[in-house]
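User: Could you go from structure to sequence for me? I need the amino acid at each position, not a summary. Structure tokens:
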């Protein structure tokens, strides 16, 4: 992935997760970091597929699917600006 795309990915993920509210954001960050070694603040090496698998295990398939779709929508929005 290009550096610009990676930047959009990170920005989109943080924007979508922020919309979930502080408590949910904190819980997701902690679980992703502890169980799946995905650090949303510092790590940009994970793929969206890896994030989706981790989210499926935390939230279930439907919840993960909704979040991943929102991330893709946010990335499209950011790249169109």
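Assistant: Here is the amino acid at each position, in order:
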């Amino acid at each position: 992935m290009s550096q610009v795309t990676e930047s959009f990915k990170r920005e989109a993920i943080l924007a979508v997760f922020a919309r979930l509210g502080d408590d949910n954001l904190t819980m997701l960050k902690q679980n992703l970091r502890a169980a799946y070694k995905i650090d949303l603040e510092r790590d940009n090496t994970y793929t969206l597929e890896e994030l989706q698998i981790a989210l499926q295990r935390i939230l279930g398939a439907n919840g993960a699917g909704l979040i991943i779709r929102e991330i893709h929508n946010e990335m499209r929005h950011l790249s169109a600006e």
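One structural detail worth keeping in mind: The domain at 3-80 is CATH 1.10.1200 (Non-ribosomal Peptide Synthetase Peptidyl Carrier Protein; Chain A).
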